[in-house]
Amino acid sequence: MKSAFGRFLVLVILLSTMGIAYAAPEITANLTASPTSFSGKCPALIKFSGTISVSAPGKIQYKFIRSDGANAPVQTLEFDKPGIRTVNTTWTLGGPGLPVYEGWEAIQVVYPQQVTSNKAGFKVECSEKKPDLGMYGFLKIGKHKKLVKWNETITLTPDDAFLVSNGKPAFDLYYSYREYAGVAVPGPFKNKIFFNGSLVSQQTNLSTGPQEIKNVHTQAYLGPEDGKIQIKVDADNEVSESREDNNFHFYVNVKFKGFSPAGSRPDLVIEDIALGKDCTVMVKVRNVGSGMVPDEVWTIHKPESSAVYLAVNGKGWGGSTIWRFDSTKQLQNPGGTAVYRSTLKVPKGAVISARIDHTNQVAESNETNNVKTKKLYCKK
Protein backbone atom coordinates (compact mmCIF):
# COMPACT_ATOMS: atom_id res chain seq x y z
CA MET A 1 0.00 0.00 0.00
CA LYS A 2 1.40 3.35 -1.02
CA SER A 3 1.90 6.09 1.56
CA ALA A 4 -0.05 9.35 1.34
CA PHE A 5 3.10 11.04 0.06
CA GLY A 6 3.58 8.28 -2.54
CA ARG A 7 0.03 8.67 -3.77
CA PHE A 8 0.50 12.44 -3.94
CA LEU A 9 3.73 12.04 -5.96
CA VAL A 10 2.05 9.62 -8.43
CA LEU A 11 -0.76 12.15 -8.89
CA VAL A 12 1.69 14.97 -9.59
CA ILE A 13 3.57 12.88 -12.22
CA LEU A 14 0.30 11.82 -13.85
CA LEU A 15 -0.95 15.38 -14.07
CA SER A 16 2.37 16.53 -15.52
CA THR A 17 2.34 13.90 -18.29
CA MET A 18 -1.17 14.97 -19.16
CA GLY A 19 -0.10 18.59 -19.40
CA ILE A 20 -2.34 19.61 -16.50
CA ALA A 21 -0.98 22.16 -14.02
CA TYR A 22 -1.36 21.50 -10.27
CA ALA A 23 -1.28 23.86 -7.30
CA ALA A 24 1.90 23.69 -5.22
CA PRO A 25 1.32 23.08 -1.47
CA GLU A 26 1.21 26.18 0.68
CA ILE A 27 4.14 26.30 3.13
CA THR A 28 4.62 28.78 5.99
CA ALA A 29 7.28 29.06 8.68
CA ASN A 30 7.64 31.08 11.85
CA LEU A 31 10.43 31.44 14.45
CA THR A 32 10.84 33.16 17.85
CA ALA A 33 13.94 33.82 20.00
CA SER A 34 14.22 33.49 23.79
CA PRO A 35 15.40 35.65 25.36
CA THR A 36 15.12 38.48 22.88
CA SER A 37 17.41 40.57 25.11
CA PHE A 38 20.24 39.10 27.20
CA SER A 39 22.40 41.00 29.68
CA GLY A 40 24.86 39.19 31.92
CA LYS A 41 27.82 36.87 31.98
CA CYS A 42 28.65 35.38 28.56
CA PRO A 43 28.56 33.16 26.63
CA ALA A 44 24.81 33.58 26.23
CA LEU A 45 22.47 30.81 25.12
CA ILE A 46 19.68 31.95 22.80
CA LYS A 47 16.95 29.40 22.16
CA PHE A 48 14.84 29.43 18.99
CA SER A 49 11.48 27.73 18.66
CA GLY A 50 9.53 27.64 15.42
CA THR A 51 6.88 25.96 13.31
CA ILE A 52 6.55 24.79 9.72
CA SER A 53 3.06 24.23 8.33
CA VAL A 54 1.97 22.67 5.02
CA SER A 55 -1.36 22.45 3.22
CA ALA A 56 -0.68 19.02 1.65
CA PRO A 57 1.26 15.84 2.48
CA GLY A 58 4.85 15.58 1.29
CA LYS A 59 8.51 15.92 2.11
CA ILE A 60 9.84 19.26 3.36
CA GLN A 61 13.51 20.14 3.56
CA TYR A 62 14.67 23.15 5.56
CA LYS A 63 17.66 24.72 7.32
CA PHE A 64 18.35 27.50 9.79
CA ILE A 65 20.07 30.63 8.54
CA ARG A 66 21.68 33.33 10.71
CA SER A 67 22.67 36.96 10.59
CA ASP A 68 26.38 36.03 10.72
CA GLY A 69 26.06 34.12 7.42
CA ALA A 70 26.30 30.65 8.92
CA ASN A 71 24.13 27.90 7.44
CA ALA A 72 23.00 24.89 9.40
CA PRO A 73 22.67 21.45 7.76
CA VAL A 74 19.55 20.72 5.73
CA GLN A 75 16.96 18.72 7.65
CA THR A 76 13.93 16.77 6.41
CA LEU A 77 10.35 16.53 7.66
CA GLU A 78 7.80 14.02 6.30
CA PHE A 79 4.18 15.17 6.39
CA ASP A 80 1.67 12.35 5.84
CA LYS A 81 -1.14 14.90 5.94
CA PRO A 82 -1.56 18.68 6.10
CA GLY A 83 -0.43 20.06 9.45
CA ILE A 84 2.16 21.84 11.60
CA ARG A 85 5.50 20.62 12.99
CA THR A 86 7.72 22.31 15.59
CA VAL A 87 11.43 22.87 15.03
CA ASN A 88 14.09 24.08 17.47
CA THR A 89 17.69 25.20 17.57
CA THR A 90 20.08 27.18 19.79
CA TRP A 91 22.88 29.70 19.32
CA THR A 92 25.63 30.20 21.90
CA LEU A 93 27.58 33.43 21.50
CA GLY A 94 29.17 36.39 23.23
CA GLY A 95 32.37 36.88 25.15
CA PRO A 96 35.48 39.14 25.37
CA GLY A 97 35.75 39.32 21.58
CA LEU A 98 32.06 39.90 21.08
CA PRO A 99 30.75 41.91 24.07
CA VAL A 100 27.68 43.18 22.22
CA TYR A 101 25.84 41.54 19.35
CA GLU A 102 22.46 42.17 17.74
CA GLY A 103 21.33 39.57 15.24
CA TRP A 104 18.69 37.17 14.02
CA GLU A 105 17.97 33.62 12.96
CA ALA A 106 15.37 32.32 10.50
CA ILE A 107 13.97 29.13 8.97
CA GLN A 108 14.56 28.63 5.25
CA VAL A 109 12.55 25.94 3.45
CA VAL A 110 14.56 24.76 0.39
CA TYR A 111 12.29 22.00 -0.97
CA PRO A 112 9.79 21.61 -2.63
CA GLN A 113 9.89 25.39 -2.87
CA GLN A 114 11.86 28.13 -1.19
CA VAL A 115 10.14 29.84 1.73
CA THR A 116 11.82 31.96 4.41
CA SER A 117 10.31 32.67 7.82
CA ASN A 118 10.44 35.91 9.76
CA LYS A 119 13.79 36.90 11.28
CA ALA A 120 13.75 36.15 15.00
CA GLY A 121 15.80 39.03 16.38
CA PHE A 122 17.74 39.20 19.64
CA LYS A 123 20.40 41.25 21.42
CA VAL A 124 23.27 40.14 23.64
CA GLU A 125 25.16 42.43 26.04
CA CYS A 126 27.96 40.68 27.90
CA SER A 127 28.70 41.97 31.38
CA GLU A 128 30.82 40.68 34.24
CA LYS A 129 28.70 42.66 36.68
CA LYS A 130 28.06 40.68 39.86
CA PRO A 131 24.69 40.40 41.61
CA ASP A 132 23.88 42.14 44.88
CA LEU A 133 21.41 40.42 47.21
CA GLY A 134 19.86 42.01 50.27
CA MET A 135 16.77 42.51 52.39
CA TYR A 136 13.99 44.67 51.03
CA GLY A 137 13.43 46.59 54.24
CA PHE A 138 10.49 45.17 56.19
CA LEU A 139 9.36 42.23 58.30
CA LYS A 140 5.84 41.14 59.22
CA ILE A 141 5.39 39.05 62.37
CA GLY A 142 2.54 37.01 63.78
CA LYS A 143 -0.95 35.92 62.79
CA HIS A 144 -1.94 39.55 62.26
CA LYS A 145 1.17 40.36 60.19
CA LYS A 146 2.41 43.21 62.35
CA LEU A 147 4.73 45.35 60.25
CA VAL A 148 8.12 46.31 61.67
CA LYS A 149 10.98 48.07 59.87
CA TRP A 150 14.73 47.91 60.26
CA ASN A 151 15.94 48.67 63.80
CA GLU A 152 12.41 49.16 65.13
CA THR A 153 10.99 47.52 68.25
CA ILE A 154 7.86 45.38 68.31
CA THR A 155 5.91 43.92 71.24
CA LEU A 156 4.41 40.45 70.76
CA THR A 157 1.66 38.85 72.85
CA PRO A 158 0.22 35.30 72.94
CA ASP A 159 -2.45 36.50 70.52
CA ASP A 160 0.26 36.96 67.86
CA ALA A 161 1.58 33.38 68.16
CA PHE A 162 0.10 30.48 66.21
CA LEU A 163 1.43 27.97 68.74
CA VAL A 164 2.74 28.06 72.32
CA SER A 165 4.53 24.92 73.47
CA ASN A 166 5.66 24.85 77.12
CA GLY A 167 5.80 28.62 77.17
CA LYS A 168 7.82 28.94 73.94
CA PRO A 169 5.82 30.74 71.23
CA ALA A 170 6.02 30.17 67.48
CA PHE A 171 5.30 32.96 64.99
CA ASP A 172 4.72 33.44 61.28
CA LEU A 173 7.45 35.57 59.69
CA TYR A 174 7.03 37.37 56.36
CA TYR A 175 9.87 39.23 54.62
CA SER A 176 11.19 40.15 51.18
CA TYR A 177 14.64 40.02 49.63
CA ARG A 178 15.84 41.60 46.40
CA GLU A 179 18.55 41.48 43.77
CA TYR A 180 19.73 45.09 43.39
CA ALA A 181 22.45 45.01 40.69
CA GLY A 182 20.30 43.85 37.78
CA VAL A 183 21.90 40.41 37.47
CA ALA A 184 19.92 37.18 37.65
CA VAL A 185 20.87 34.66 40.34
CA PRO A 186 19.60 31.21 39.34
CA GLY A 187 20.72 29.89 42.73
CA PRO A 188 20.49 27.96 44.80
CA PHE A 189 21.35 29.99 47.89
CA LYS A 190 20.10 30.15 51.49
CA ASN A 191 18.57 32.81 53.72
CA LYS A 192 18.75 32.39 57.50
CA ILE A 193 16.90 33.99 60.41
CA PHE A 194 18.56 34.30 63.82
CA PHE A 195 17.11 35.21 67.21
CA ASN A 196 19.66 36.36 69.78
CA GLY A 197 22.35 34.78 67.62
CA SER A 198 20.72 31.34 67.34
CA LEU A 199 19.40 29.99 64.05
CA VAL A 200 15.58 29.72 64.16
CA SER A 201 14.65 29.38 60.48
CA GLN A 202 16.33 28.63 57.15
CA GLN A 203 15.10 28.95 53.56
CA THR A 204 16.95 26.92 50.91
CA ASN A 205 17.06 26.58 47.10
CA LEU A 206 16.37 30.29 46.61
CA SER A 207 16.88 32.23 43.38
CA THR A 208 16.00 35.59 41.87
CA GLY A 209 15.86 37.43 38.57
CA PRO A 210 17.59 40.76 37.87
CA GLN A 211 16.26 43.39 40.31
CA GLU A 212 13.49 40.97 41.25
CA ILE A 213 11.77 41.14 44.65
CA LYS A 214 10.93 37.78 46.24
CA ASN A 215 8.51 37.31 49.16
CA VAL A 216 9.15 34.66 51.81
CA HIS A 217 6.83 33.16 54.46
CA THR A 218 8.38 31.01 57.17
CA GLN A 219 7.76 30.09 60.80
CA ALA A 220 10.00 30.14 63.86
CA TYR A 221 10.05 29.83 67.64
CA LEU A 222 11.10 33.07 69.33
CA GLY A 223 11.52 34.16 72.94
CA PRO A 224 9.87 34.47 75.29
CA GLU A 225 12.94 36.42 76.44
CA ASP A 226 13.29 39.80 74.74
CA GLY A 227 15.85 39.87 71.96
CA LYS A 228 16.81 40.64 68.39
CA ILE A 229 15.76 39.07 65.09
CA GLN A 230 18.40 39.17 62.35
CA ILE A 231 17.94 38.07 58.74
CA LYS A 232 20.89 37.20 56.52
CA VAL A 233 20.38 36.87 52.77
CA ASP A 234 22.75 34.42 51.04
CA ALA A 235 23.78 33.38 54.53
CA ASP A 236 26.46 30.88 53.43
CA ASN A 237 27.95 33.19 50.75
CA GLU A 238 27.04 30.78 47.96
CA VAL A 239 26.67 33.70 45.53
CA SER A 240 29.65 35.83 44.49
CA GLU A 241 28.33 39.38 44.95
CA SER A 242 29.49 42.89 44.22
CA ARG A 243 28.86 43.62 47.92
CA GLU A 244 29.15 41.04 50.66
CA ASP A 245 28.76 43.49 53.57
CA ASN A 246 25.05 44.25 53.23
CA ASN A 247 23.51 40.78 53.64
CA PHE A 248 23.33 40.81 57.46
CA HIS A 249 22.32 44.37 58.24
CA PHE A 250 18.59 43.85 58.82
CA TYR A 251 17.45 43.41 62.40
CA VAL A 252 14.48 44.25 64.62
CA ASN A 253 14.10 44.32 68.40
CA VAL A 254 11.38 42.18 69.96
CA LYS A 255 9.71 42.44 73.35
CA PHE A 256 7.32 39.81 74.70
CA LYS A 257 4.28 40.48 76.88
CA GLY A 258 2.05 37.91 78.57
CA PHE A 259 4.28 34.87 78.03
CA SER A 260 5.57 32.55 80.73
CA PRO A 261 9.25 32.74 81.70
CA ALA A 262 11.46 30.27 79.88
CA GLY A 263 11.46 26.82 81.48
CA SER A 264 8.28 27.40 83.52
CA ARG A 265 5.47 24.86 83.37
CA PRO A 266 1.71 24.88 83.88
CA ASP A 267 0.02 23.03 86.75
CA LEU A 268 -3.57 21.91 86.27
CA VAL A 269 -5.70 21.25 89.34
CA ILE A 270 -9.36 20.54 90.10
CA GLU A 271 -10.30 23.61 92.12
CA ASP A 272 -13.88 22.59 92.88
CA ILE A 273 -16.64 20.10 92.17
CA ALA A 274 -20.25 21.25 92.52
CA LEU A 275 -23.81 20.61 91.38
CA GLY A 276 -25.82 22.86 89.13
CA LYS A 277 -29.50 23.71 89.59
CA ASP A 278 -30.49 20.55 87.72
CA CYS A 279 -28.12 18.48 89.91
CA THR A 280 -25.60 17.93 87.12
CA VAL A 281 -21.92 17.86 88.05
CA MET A 282 -19.77 20.88 87.32
CA VAL A 283 -15.95 20.88 87.62
CA LYS A 284 -13.82 24.00 87.92
CA VAL A 285 -10.24 23.61 86.65
CA ARG A 286 -7.41 26.09 87.28
CA ASN A 287 -3.86 26.50 85.96
CA VAL A 288 -1.94 27.24 89.18
CA GLY A 289 1.46 26.92 87.53
CA SER A 290 3.76 29.68 86.29
CA GLY A 291 3.75 28.41 82.71
CA MET A 292 1.27 28.34 79.85
CA VAL A 293 -0.65 25.25 78.83
CA PRO A 294 0.70 24.35 75.35
CA ASP A 295 -1.41 25.04 72.27
CA GLU A 296 -1.30 21.35 71.34
CA VAL A 297 -3.99 20.74 74.00
CA TRP A 298 -6.42 22.62 71.73
CA THR A 299 -4.98 22.00 68.27
CA ILE A 300 -4.26 18.25 68.39
CA HIS A 301 -7.41 16.15 68.71
CA LYS A 302 -6.91 12.49 69.57
CA PRO A 303 -8.47 9.89 71.93
CA GLU A 304 -5.86 10.54 74.63
CA SER A 305 -6.16 14.34 74.52
CA SER A 306 -5.97 16.05 77.91
CA ALA A 307 -9.37 15.91 79.60
CA VAL A 308 -11.42 15.95 82.79
CA TYR A 309 -12.46 12.40 83.78
CA LEU A 310 -15.22 11.70 86.33
CA ALA A 311 -15.94 8.72 88.58
CA VAL A 312 -19.13 8.12 90.62
CA ASN A 313 -18.75 6.17 93.85
CA GLY A 314 -15.49 4.78 92.55
CA LYS A 315 -16.87 3.74 89.14
CA GLY A 316 -15.65 5.54 86.00
CA TRP A 317 -18.28 7.62 84.24
CA GLY A 318 -16.48 9.62 81.49
CA GLY A 319 -15.74 13.25 80.85
CA SER A 320 -14.66 15.79 78.26
CA THR A 321 -11.45 17.00 76.62
CA ILE A 322 -10.15 20.46 77.44
CA TRP A 323 -10.42 21.57 73.82
CA ARG A 324 -14.17 20.87 73.96
CA PHE A 325 -15.19 22.50 77.24
CA ASP A 326 -12.60 25.31 77.08
CA SER A 327 -12.64 26.28 73.41
CA THR A 328 -11.59 29.88 74.21
CA LYS A 329 -8.39 28.74 76.00
CA GLN A 330 -9.22 30.25 79.39
CA LEU A 331 -6.91 27.71 81.02
CA GLN A 332 -3.87 28.50 78.93
CA ASN A 333 -2.35 31.38 80.90
CA PRO A 334 -1.17 31.08 84.52
CA GLY A 335 -4.13 31.62 86.87
CA GLY A 336 -6.66 30.83 84.15
CA THR A 337 -9.82 28.85 84.96
CA ALA A 338 -12.45 26.94 83.01
CA VAL A 339 -15.62 25.06 84.01
CA TYR A 340 -16.65 21.68 82.67
CA ARG A 341 -20.45 21.27 82.80
CA SER A 342 -21.16 17.57 82.53
CA THR A 343 -24.42 15.72 81.89
CA LEU A 344 -23.85 13.52 84.93
CA LYS A 345 -26.82 13.85 87.34
CA VAL A 346 -26.67 13.11 91.05
CA PRO A 347 -30.34 12.50 92.04
CA LYS A 348 -29.59 11.99 95.74
CA GLY A 349 -26.04 11.85 96.96
CA ALA A 350 -22.78 10.46 95.54
CA VAL A 351 -19.01 10.60 95.91
CA ILE A 352 -17.63 12.28 92.81
CA SER A 353 -13.96 12.14 91.81
CA ALA A 354 -12.60 14.41 89.12
CA ARG A 355 -9.15 14.04 87.53
CA ILE A 356 -7.59 16.53 85.12
CA ASP A 357 -5.13 15.36 82.45
CA HIS A 358 -5.58 11.71 83.39
CA THR A 359 -3.62 10.69 80.24
CA ASN A 360 -0.63 12.86 81.22
CA GLN A 361 -0.53 14.85 77.98
CA VAL A 362 0.60 18.08 79.66
CA ALA A 363 4.05 18.37 81.23
CA GLU A 364 3.25 20.00 84.60
CA SER A 365 5.31 21.40 87.43
CA ASN A 366 3.39 19.09 89.79
CA GLU A 367 1.94 15.81 88.54
CA THR A 368 0.51 14.70 91.92
CA ASN A 369 -2.30 17.22 92.44
CA ASN A 370 -4.64 16.44 89.56
CA VAL A 371 -7.43 14.66 91.49
CA LYS A 372 -10.16 15.96 93.78
CA THR A 373 -12.92 13.94 95.46
CA LYS A 374 -16.07 15.38 96.97
CA LYS A 375 -19.40 14.05 98.28
CA LEU A 376 -22.31 15.88 96.67
CA TYR A 377 -26.04 15.99 97.61
CA CYS A 378 -28.87 17.07 95.35
CA LYS A 379 -31.14 19.43 97.26
CA LYS A 380 -34.15 19.06 94.96
How are the SSEs ordered, and which strands pair?
Blueprint lengths: L3 H14 L9 E8 L2 E4 L3 E11 L3 E9 L8 E5 L3 E11 L6 E12 L3 E2 L3 E7 L6 E9 L4 E4 L3 E4 L6 E3 L2 E12 L5 E11 L2 E11 L4 E9 L5 E6 L17 E7 L11 E8 L4 E8 L8 H4 L7 E6 L2 E7 H4 L11 E9 L3 E8 L14 E7 L3
Parallel strand pairs: 2-9, 12-19
Antiparallel strand pairs: 1-3, 3-6, 4-5, 4-7, 7-8, 7-9, 10-11, 10-14, 13-14, 14-17, 15-16, 15-18, 18-19, 20-21, 21-24, 22-23, 22-25, 25-26
Tell me what the structure shows.
The protein folds into three domains: 4-126, Immunoglobulins (Immunoglobulin-like); 133-256, Immunoglobulin-like (Sandwich), CATH 2.60.40; 268-377, Sandwich (Immunoglobulin-like), CATH 2.60.40. The protein is 6% helix and 52% strand. The protein contains three helices and 26 strands. Strands 2, 4, 5, 7, 8 and 9 form a six-stranded mixed sheet that branches. Strands 10, 11, 13, 14 and 17 form a five-stranded antiparallel sheet that branches. The longest helix has 14 residues, at 4-17. The radius of gyration is 37 Å and the shape is elongated. The mean pLDDT is 90.
Fill in the keyword field for this structure.
Immunoglobulin-like; mainly beta; 6% helix; 380 residues; 3 domains; 3 helices; elongated
> Which regions have little confidence, pLDDT < 50, spanning 5+ residues?
none
CATH topology descriptor of the largest domain: Immunoglobulin-like
Compressed to H and E, one letter per element, the order equals HEEEEEEEEEEEEEEEEEEEEEHEEHEEE
Q: What is the CATH class name of the largest domain?
A: Mainly Beta
Quaternary assembly: single chain
Instruction: Count the beta strands.
Output: 26
Separate helix tally: 3
Mean pLDDT: 90
Alpha-carbon distance between the two ends: 103 Å
Name the CATH architecture of the largest domain. Answer: Sandwich
| Beta content | over 45%
Which class of secondary structure composition applies to the elements?
mainly beta
The coarse silhouette is elongated
Supply the CATH superfamily name of the largest domain.
Immunoglobulins
